[in-house]
Amino acid sequence: MSDPVTLSSGISYDRDGIETWLKAGNFTCPVTNQVLMSFDLVPNHALRRMIQDWCVQNLRFGVERIPTPRVPVSGDEIAAVLARLESAAKRLDEYDCRECLRKMTSWGNESERNRISIASNGAAGVLAAAFDGFARETVEKRAVVLEELLSSMSWMFTMSSRGGGKEAAAARDPLLWFLKSNGSRIAAKQNSLIALRELLLASSKRERVAESMLEIEDLHQILFGFLRSPISPAITKLSLTLIFQLLQISTSKSSDRFKSSLIDADLVSFLLETIISSSKERSVSEKALGILDKLCDDSKGRAAASGNSLTVPLLVKKILRISAAATEFSVSVIWKLGRCDQRALVEGLQVGAFQKLVLVLQLGCGEETKEKATATLKMMNPFRNEFECTESLDFKNLKRSF
User: Where does the U-box domain lie (predicted)?
Assistant: First the structure.
């Protein structure tokens, strides 16, 4: 034990172990099976000191003394700081607000337990409201406190079961300011993208939120700019995620314009190059294939994909190579291209697509992917005798895990 605590049953456990037990939905003491009247975990200082003394006595055997654990922050302490921060934000007291942020950051740095407690006490919503309050003035004037608020919001959003979307919506314009500003630090841009992603995923009215974001005139330039001129791997992944989510959620005319702008910016070629260069980055490849699939819903997107000699060979190669999601996207794109252009079918046959699609059906896949693979096989069948070619190396080391 490194942090012994006692339950209401009188039995002591290590804090991490018993917290895991309770979070799993258990309401009894593991030893006595007694129903717990309280879930309070009382630090057992006597047992902890006994363990520390034993460690000191056995230092010569390589035993290290366990550190004295910090007492987890309480809900009352968190509530008090949040109330103070809320009051400071209403007064636009930048100094007091930053003091509260530093206090919460210090608590969060002490342990994962503290971070979860802070997030579960509604801190993300309070910080987002404060962000909105300070952002009502000139963003440049309040850039320092806004950036600190944004930094805290980013990790709180990810730990609060996507509960900050409503409050983050009001902060959209300041978030975009950080993305556009050349003076913003990389961390500020990354945190802004995280907040925008949470805004999309958290809202119960995703289509409306996506629509409001798509109405931003130069959004495609901002996101594609992060892809074309990479700042950091995290920002690249976040940009791909945002583009994919926007294309997936919205089906309006704004979405069509956004899609058209990305195609005109030659995103298709960039995606193909990204898939090639990120062969060891599964999540990046999946997102790139997912965006390519969405772009191919548009005739301009299909034309751009068909016009690139890398498209079909690369898609066939990625089937059963990366993940189930990547396979589904690859099959979908081949199906969309094949329906409109026989050249894609012929080219697919020449690089072994027929055998790959048969394997997809044999190994199992989703119902929609099964239908698309079957339809593609039927479209390819008339050309098999004349154009089919099999690349045996693609199947040599195939494993059932796919």
Answer: 1-61
